[in-house]
Amino acid sequence: MKHRDEFRLKNLIANMEKKDIDILIVSSPQNIRYIAGEPVDYAMAYITKEGSTGVLCSILEKERASDVTWVDTVYSYNPYSKTDRDVIKARSIYQALPILMHKLTGEKAVIGIPFSEVTHKSYTVIRRKLRGYKIVNADDVITDSRIIKSKWEQDIMRKSIEITESGVSYAIELISEGITESELAVEAEYYMKKKGAEKIYEFLIVASGERSALPHGRATDKKIRKGEAITLDFVASYNGYYGDITRTVFLGTPDKELIKIYKIVLEALENAISTVKEGIPALEVDKVARKIINKYRYGKYFIHSTGHGIGLNVHEPPRLSKTDKTVLRAGMVLTVEPGIYIPNKGGVRIEEDILVTKSGCEVLSNSNRSLVFL
Ligand SMILES: [Mn+2]
């Protein structure tokens, strides 16, 4: 069994207490991993307010879950079980739920379940199986906990970010006239996997020429030509946690306006980063980036928010957007990624991943972000 991330679990329990939740039960892969420390499939994970943790899983996962997670107890279910004391006979995970309640809590227990991760169909089974218990929505408990990264999580994220940016740098080295966007994406994917990436996001963005004006221009078989901007936005995970890095580079000499917007985006990025510190509302960071881009009259081409939280999901709260009033706190990991996109011409985005600290922030990515002409 591996060592528990005590900081994370204590934080989670503190957030459960605010809502009077006795036991928190989660079923999404990310939340299971958050409570158990490792992924378990066909499963649910729980933590009680006293701090005991466990996993309820299919018999297929029982042995592995016992080996790799840090939880105290692994319960499992098996459609054909007759004998095993810790295995309940059930066809599905939700049908197996009563085994937890029977072993862990009294009749009056308040059960927290993040409603956003349960389908309506599953919820009706949960209701039926947990009749008599008070069930409350624990979405906030999870969000408020996961938004602050423990030292343990920060260390993993340093590694995922390092892998992701090494993939971007590798792809940039491969850029030459005639290579396709997809070739760059595939080579980078293989490279990041060899560097230890667990998962590559479902698509990698390689957007060249006019396509660089597409903020989500996933790689196509388009060939790269001289004079084009090439935006590479890669997302890869390590031990479940994501890194998200973007660079825009130029092959040869591009249109002058693209060089101009590169400098503006860089100015917006650097000013936004230097605004970040504990106590600042998220929207303030967006405001700073937007103000700079507006100053140069490119505001209407900055069509997304300035950044987002990142962790077990690529996109997590808070949003560095016009409307998110979340006050930044030390331990949040955020992307900062202003961009300018001019239709039929091209675009520029530069993205860094940062760790909010008491006095400012630490930029966790550290590859070159100045203008590059290949
Ligand atoms: Mn991003």
Descriptive tags:
374 residues, alpha+beta, Creatine Amidinohydrolase, Chain A, domain 1, Creatine Amidinohydrolase, 2 domains, 7-stranded mixed sheet, 4-stranded antiparallel sheet, 18 strands, binds manganese (II) ion
How would you describe this protein?
The chain is an alpha+beta fold. The chain has two domains: 6-146, Creatine Amidinohydrolase, Chain A, domain 1, CATH 3.40.350; 151-363, Creatine Amidinohydrolase (Alpha-Beta Complex). Helices cover 33% and strands 23% of the residues. It has helices at residues 6-18, 29-36, 62-68, 98-104, 120-129, 139-146, 151-174, 181-194, 256-275, 282-295; strands at 23-26, 43-48, 53-58, 73-77, 87-88, 110-113, 134-137, 199-200, 205-208, 229-238, 241-250, 307-309, 316-320, 333-336, 339-342, 346-349, 352-356, 361-363. Strands 5-4-3-2-1-6-7 form a seven-stranded mixed beta sheet, sandwiched between helices. Strand 12 and strand 13 (316-320) form a beta hairpin. The termini are far apart. 43% of the residues are buried. The mean pLDDT is 94. The chain binds manganese (II) ion (MN). Manganese (II) ion binds next to loops.
Class by SSE composition: alpha+beta
Enumerate how many helices there are, as a single number: 10
Strand order of the largest sheet: 5-4-3-2-1-6-7
The total strand number stands at 18
Report the helical percentage: 25-40%
Specify the CATH homologous superfamily of the largest domain. Creatinase/methionine aminopeptidase superfamily
